[in-house]
Amino acid sequence: MEKSARCIPPLHHEEIHDFDVVELTKDDKKLEGVGIEIKKVELSALTMRKGDRVILDFQDHHVGYFSINIHSVGSPMDAPLTLQVRFAEVAAEFAYTSSEYDGWLSKSWIQEEMIHLDVLPCRLEFPRRYAFRYVEITVIDTSPKWQAVFSEPKIIAVSSADDTKLQKRSFDDWMLQKIYDAGIKTLKDCMMDVFEDGPKRDRRLWLGDLRLQAQANYASFRQNDLVKRCLYLFGAMTTIDGKISANVFTSPAPVPDDTFLFDYSLFFIDTLYDYLNEENNPELFDDLFDIARNQMDLALRYVDEGGKLKLTEGYPVFVDWSNEFDKSTAAQAIMIYTIKRFLVLAEKKEIDPIFYERMLEKMERYAIDKLWDEQKGLFRTNENEYNIASQVWMVLADVFPMKKSREIMEKTVELLFPVRNIATPYMYSHIVEALFHAGMKEEAIKLMKSYWGRMIELGADTFWEAFDPDHPSYSLYGSPIISSYCHAWSCTPVYLLEKYV
Amino acid sequence: MEKSARCIPPLHHEEIHDFDVVELTKDDKKLEGVGIEIKKVELSALTMRKGDRVILDFQDHHVGYFSINIHSVGSPMDAPLTLQVRFAEVAAEFAYTSSEYDGWLSKSWIQEEMIHLDVLPCRLEFPRRYAFRYVEITVIDTSPKWQAVFSEPKIIAVSSADDTKLQKRSFDDWMLQKIYDAGIKTLKDCMMDVFEDGPKRDRRLWLGDLRLQAQANYASFRQNDLVKRCLYLFGAMTTIDGKISANVFTSPAPVPDDTFLFDYSLFFIDTLYDYLNEENNPELFDDLFDIARNQMDLALRYVDEGGKLKLTEGYPVFVDWSNEFDKSTAAQAIMIYTIKRFLVLAEKKEIDPIFYERMLEKMERYAIDKLWDEQKGLFRTNENEYNIASQVWMVLADVFPMKKSREIMEKTVELLFPVRNIATPYMYSHIVEALFHAGMKEEAIKLMKSYWGRMIELGADTFWEAFDPDHPSYSLYGSPIISSYCHAWSCTPVYLLEKYV
Fold this sequence. Notes:
homodimer, alpha+beta, Jelly Rolls, 9-stranded antiparallel sheet, 3-stranded antiparallel sheet
């Protein structure tokens, strides 16, 4: 924990002053059909009465602190000023109200404040951090005798990512450039004192997200101490039997969540493996290897004599938010993938590998004997389902030699594409990587463009937590006001483009 | 202005820790049929989920700052906490919601906050000042995984009234004691850095209220410097032609309102007269006499050759909030009343009184010749209406000798009582005083009990801005959440009981 604390990065501050006054328009090409149009008006020329609203557009996604000057005109201010202020990452959020929201996820995430000001003029400074591009200010009431005037809005944007350390990639392809740039911004806006999953929501460190953020970081900002901090945080807060939580909280003090995901715990090994590939650090390796090994040992308890992974409800595998498909084969593959990485670490530590090698062999054997369908050229699941996730993870796990992996991915494209019922960029990342990994660069780029590129077309400045191109308006939680439109696990093009393009 | 600033009083702070957890009950004997019942429960034993609410009762009206401890129980806090917090002077306010309020008075006065807390545990300290006895806390959302727990609520009550300077009166009559005590509390809770009209709303210095607060102050706290401060404030901020505003604002800097009331401007003279009766202060008299004289000179422009007061729309007379009656005779009387006071001041200043004496004579002549109905024994108005306000102010102005004044008040009781269509304690005070003035002590006390005593029966801790015993639920502004239940102009029993009982 102490070593983790030593790596707390400084937050860089950037003042954002440029903005437009905009209004919402109908625009079928944008998310939810909501576009914006710049109004040719000076903010400080607007004298705002009860019910008036104004939308400020800061032209890009930011994470930070908002402030604005307010004064009154007309008669003396004979009542407080009441404002509703809403912060939005995408314009579509303004088409929804918090009173309508009735999802299971906490309403508290809605970025909305009701402010009473007893004395004007003042500079209104919001103490909370928000993730936003747009600020909507609605005057709930002044009094019939005076109006409110707003001026000099400002954002102090924060991030621990240091732009000066970044050597940006250039692409001839316009869309790849857009995708890369938005990926960088997504990563940057999630880099705070830990790698957050989303600066709007949930604002905390998830292990599955960390793995991808770390990969994108090695390909861009290279602020490896932040990865180190996060690895130590997870390592320091296991359960009594050594299991790592799916996520941890850091404020007011570090505490692990009581949520556990099978694949996330295992990915501690993979994240450690990647880190050590990036930077030789014997001390960290010493500190964390036993904890990594524990994840493997705990996971192996769920493997039966025949090499079959049998998960329980209390320790589910994630793979993707969607529960529309059987994840058993993907889980089997993730485990195989991780044992292979673990064996590399074990060798460095001069640990006797025999037990792990045998388990790997058993699991691969089960995969090939029981799950592989030679006739179809695809992996089935234990429930006899053929889905993309199974192929993708078996390919990433190199269960077959590369030539066969390519055949599998070709068959996947032929029989299982276009992608359906996958809700998150998290799983899309793995599909794209499996295509790259199998040597299908063109297909990989095509999918990247049709997915991340589609978000760009719909107006994304940063990439979203969830996106289904077939249902662009789909929200995991029932309303855009609760959705996260800058979400770490979608920054992966930064890594994929660096590694494969 | 400088002399006014020198008299800014220190605010005394009192910590209030005692409270009950209560629930609302149906109670036909209380205002709007809303009573309270103490719940036998420890606040800190309540683990509150989405939608749960709790009402804290601090057992008396207070003005000040509220704070409370909050922590979470259950899983780690995986979302912000959102609270709605409402402050109420009377329990009936909780029967209304701000979203339903659609009156003309600013919604901003509703004492309600929406609070988001990102990190628990914390001590939530509200920066704004509220006037309240009750605090309702509603949990808008936590998350399904944890609950909020509240403890150690505290009020830091503020007032510039110094209890140690107060020699409270004792009455054998239980109800008079209650009325007196609530009057003292009303006065105290309106004594801040000026005499406020109401600590909930409008929180500012009105001249009509000041006159009555000063009278009550001389009968209790005797903090005359606060009156001095207020007199200087009004005196320092007249219009170019010397007219005094009906009210002034003091924050962030002193500024007069653009509202002018004929009787309020005139009462600067009466308030100065009372002050000098209470405390000899040649400097203040020198500073303010010309300003007082200006109010008289400006008012006299509205008196025609025949001694008739003819007001215009731009400078209306107040008398009472109600516009259900013709105020012309009351206004004529208020002017006569004030000229008499002014002549006393003028004599002290050795000003030639002849002009003012002539105007007084003309106006009294008009009153007696044109408005007095000898047959009925009552004053009529210019619109030939017989109302209470006319009699009350003619009696207070001593237009007739005392014996006749008594006959007028007896006739008033006989023909015009019970009081109808008078909305405010402000006018009721003058009715009671006219009864006392005319020697009808028993009738005066009876009316005081049936009016202020009725508020006590309905649950008042402090006296209200508006109250019509025939329509207890009547609100000037359409909803109790916008009404002021501690309003300076209703503290007058303190003065009336001291002077006459």
